[in-house]
Amino acid sequence: MLGSLNLRRQRTAGLTLPELLVGLIVAGVLAVLVAPNLTTFIRVQRLKSINAQLVTDLQFARSEAVARNQYARISFRNSTGANGVTCYSIYTAPGSDTRCNCLNGAGAACSGTAVEIRTVRYPRSDFVTVGPQSGIGQDNAFAYDHVAGGIVSIPTDDDDAPLNGYSVQAQMDSSRILRNQISRAGRITTCSAGTVNLGPPPC
């Protein structure tokens, strides 16, 4: 009697084929519903990570200006296409006409008398672009002053123009933008510039 009860329990412990099919259908529907949200979540996390690296590098450039007793310059560029990149270079140079081109890659961004300190590149396939805020008349480069730590336009050997501010951002789309506003004194504040709040306060 006891043996037949155990045998009956073993037979009813598994799933039938229709139950398995229903489970697979439910799992498939959930995957279709969740996948777009998961993709967006991953891209937003990538945006936040890239912006955090950008802020760190801006602070690094300011400290390098003081350490090297030279203007530390930052130049931004973007390219499109299948192999497009978004990038920036931190460098020093004696004249205003020398700008490093981060599109050439790390170690090859600068030529002549310019000295490359750091070049950072991200493929456009990451769905994030980095660069100056557009539409407000900004140059694609600026410099940190090694004397006061403030920001200036790209200087010549004997002249520079202090900037009242500079705005550089990491952007996923028109709704998801992290904007870093650099004050005249070189301090950085980050805000959410798009319609989606990404954590920092709205701009």
Can you walk me through this structure?
The protein has a 5-stranded antiparallel β-sheet, with helices on one face. It has a 4-stranded antiparallel β-sheet with strand order 4-7-8-9, with helices on one face. It has one domain: 3-Layer(bab) Sandwich (minor pseudopilin epsh fold). Helices cover 31% and strands 26% of the residues. The protein contains 2 helices and 9 strands. The chain has helices at residues 2-11, 17-68; strands at residues 72-78, 85-92, 115-123, 129-132, 141-144, 151-152, 165-171, 177-183, 188-192. The longest helix is centred in the N-terminal third of the chain and has 52 residues, at 17-68. The chain is an alpha+beta fold.
Oligomer designation: single chain
Order of helices and strands: HHEEEEEEEEE
Mean pLDDT: 87
Indicate the CATH topology: minor pseudopilin epsh fold
User: What does the radius of gyration come to?
Assistant: 26 Å
Across the major sheet, the strand order is: 3-2-1-5-6
CATH architecture: 3-Layer(bab) Sandwich
Low-confidence stretches: none
Beta-strand residue percentage: 25-35%
Descriptive terms for the model:
203 residues, alpha+beta, 9 strands, elongated
Lay out the secondary structure.
Layout: H1 2-11, H2 17-68, E1 72-78, E2 85-92, E3 115-123, E4 129-132, E5 141-144, E6 151-152, E7 165-171, E8 177-183, E9 188-192
Antiparallel strand pairs: 1-2, 1-5, 2-3, 4-7, 5-6, 7-8, 8-9
Summarize the structure in short.
The chain has 203 residues and is α+β, with helices and mostly antiparallel strands. Helix content is 31%, strand content 26%.
